[in-house]
Amino acid sequence: MTILGHFYDRADEHPDRVAIIEASDRSATYGDLKRRSVELAAAWSKQGILPGDRVLVAVWPGIELYASLAAIWRLGATAVLPEASMGLKGFLHAAEASKPKALLAGPGICLLSRFIPETRGIPLRISPYARGSRTVAPVAPIGNDTPALISFTSGTTGKPKGIVRTHGLLLAQHEALASIIAPKDRPEIDLVAFPAFVLTCLGHGTTAVMPDWDVRRHDMVNVGQIGVQARRMAVTRLLVPPVITARIADERLIAPTVRRVMTGGGPVYPDVARAFLRANPGMGLTIVYGSTEAEPISHVEAESLSEDDWSLAANGGGLPAGDVVPEAALRIVDGEIQVAGGHVNEGYMDPARDAETKVRVDGVVYHRTGDAGRIDDKGRLWLLGRTSASVEGIHPFAVETAARLQPGVTNAAFLAHAGLRVLFVEGEDIVLDRSFRQRLKETGVLVQKVGAMPMDSRHRSKPDYAKLRRKVKVRSLLIGGAAAFRRITGAQSGPE
Predict the structure, then answer these.
(1) What is the rounded (10 degree) CA torsion for 60, 65, 66, 67?
(2) Domain range summary for the chain, segments of one domain joined by +
């Protein structure tokens, strides 16, 4: 069984159920999507797409994309998905790194690709709108180790890494997500802001609604816009990043059919989670923790947390990430979360990159997440922040959570770098109370106000620590220069 097999099974079980609804209200049933994938596979087979071929995909999330992915897998080929948040740069990086046999795109992109050095040498160009072929391409033999798709990390912590996802890995991820996404007692209509999660939704037979906003700029959407779409399409669940969850916490979501919001891809701080539950009574909030290489790792329903849990989080205990999924083998080594399992990527397209985040123990490959964490006495996981941003037992989430409770602070990020410990805060009329200032002083933490916190390019939901490190380096140089000035001149003060 593969994720394609699960989708075809759902199509055979309920061919008339709606599979995908685009923002324009255009829709396709499961039967439509399966027929379209068969037609595309036949057309592309005649053009020369063979098992093992790599197909660079430049198609916006919607009916054409998911029918195309099913067709690619039907032929035993591999889909190459550029990192959308990187725009043209990500597309060209994917082309250069994967050396695809074909480009799947509309006529405009296909034409332009012939004039770009990284893409002009691609042998074939195939269309997601291909029609007409009486031949039916059979489903190619697919094993667990057959590559299904290649995706890329966002590159925020270095050069983007290509991740080869086999059919076995996709199926394991689908099964690991079942306890979170699979419908329980009724069909679900999911508004999905994570394109990769649509695959799991289709495998579980839910209806996936495409967002009515640019998924590269989640920070630009407003709650009213989401509510209008959710009401129009009778959405029952939202799968959205934390930046949208925070917006819904600030302003009630007027969409009576929505019963639950599922969020992941960045930290959900206690002030946001509690404000969400207050603003949206009767609506649940599920927080999913994972990474590009390991999705999911754990999850928690925020409404199930006790007052003691919230108090602990607010006082430096970390962010509650809940129960580790049964499919994940998790261990904490020197404070870092490491995870293994069938749904965890064991290596990168370039094996030379494996040493950065992969550890082999007794034949088992663990992925190093780079996140600090701890397990409480109930076996639940708590997140403490990036290990690279921690110092001497001081962890980012502990400082940031406390800072966000200060009057006027709307965002905060802690970073230890270049010999300094800096708390960046964003907001108007910020007032840090005496006890908090004293704690910062005792631990040697400097405070720097920023006009707008730099956020990650993928989900706009967590601080961009690479950009913040550059700010810290500049400040370190300034402070070092000031100290040198005082030593040379004997001055009592210098530039701050």
Answers:
(1) 150
(2) 1-164, 406-489
At 200-235, the pLDDT tens digits run 999 999 999 999 988 888 888 899 999 999 999 999
Tell me how far apart the alpha carbons of residues 352 and 83 are, in angstroms, rounded to a whole number: 20
Prior bond to 296 cis, omega within 30?
yes
Neighbour tally for 470: CB within 10 Å: 14
**Per-residue pLDDT reduced to its tens digit, 90-105:** 999 999 999 999 999 9
Q: Which two tokens stand for residue 22?
A: 């685009």
Q: What is the average pLDDT value for the chain, to the nearest integer?
A: 91
Beta pairing partners, 56: 80, 103
Q: Token pair for residue 408?
A: 């006027």
CATH architecture designation of domain 1-164: 3-Layer(aba) Sandwich (3.40)
For 406-489, CATH gives 3.30.300.30
Segment 329-346 shows an average pLDDT of 96
Write down the number of H helices and E strands in the chain: 16, 23
* Longest distance between any two alpha carbons in the chain, whole Å: 88
Question: With contact defined as beta carbons under 8 Å apart, do 342 and 364 qualify?
Answer: no
Strands 284-291 and 260-264: parallel
Alpha-carbon separation of residue 248 from 198, 232, 372, 402 (angstroms): 22, 18, 28, 22
- Residues 354, 119: Cα–Cα separation, whole Å: 27
**Residue 326, pLDDT above cutoff 70:** yes
- How far are the Cα atoms of 396, 410, 423, 443 from residue 316, in angstroms, in the given order? 9, 18, 15, 14
Encode pLDDT of 29-43 as tens digits: 999 999 999 999 999
pTM of the model as a whole: 0.89
User: What does the alpha-carbon distance between residue 55 and residue 135 come to, in Å, rounded to a whole number?
Assistant: 21
Other C-beta atoms within 10 Å of 257: how many? 12
Q: CB 333: neighbour CB atoms within 10 A? A: 11
Better-predicted residue by pLDDT, 204 or 495: 204
Question: What's the CA gap between 244 and 222, in Å, rounded?
Answer: 8
pLDDT at 424: 95
Q: CA 183, CA 199: separation in Å to the nearest integer?
A: 14
Which residues share a beta bridge with 29?
Answer: 18
- Quick one: which of 386, 405, 406, 404 has its CA closest to 396? 386
Query: Whole-angstrom Cα distance, residue 433 to residue 427?
Result: 15
φ/ψ of residue 60, rounded to 5: -70, 145
- Tens-place pLDDT, residues 421-461: 999 999 999 999 999 999 999 999 999 999 999 888 777 77
CB 322 within 8 A of CB 298: yes
Of the chain, the end-to-end C-alpha distance in Å amounts to 63
If 0-12 CB within 10 Å is exposed, 13-18 middle and 19+ buried, where does residue 242 land? buried
- DSSP strand pairing (237-240 vs 18-21): unpaired
- H runs (alpha helix) in 193-259: 195-204, 223-232, 242-250
